[in-house]
Write a structure and sequence with these properties.
Layout (H helix, E strand, L loop, with lengths): L1 H18 L4 H5 L11
């Protein structure tokens, strides 16, 4: 169903972010300094 496809797409995007060296959490919570630990 659509829910499964959405999770699949989000998982793929997270994988692309990880391969690019981007922390998805920083994209979601850019205002939280506690998550900026991967620099």
């Amino acid at each position: 169903g659509a829910g499964y496809n959405l999770r699949k797409i989000l998982g793929h995007l997270a994988l692309l972010c990880a391969r690019s060296g981007i922390n998805p959490n920083r994209l979601l919570m850019t205002n939280s300094p506690n998550l900026q630990l991967s620099d």
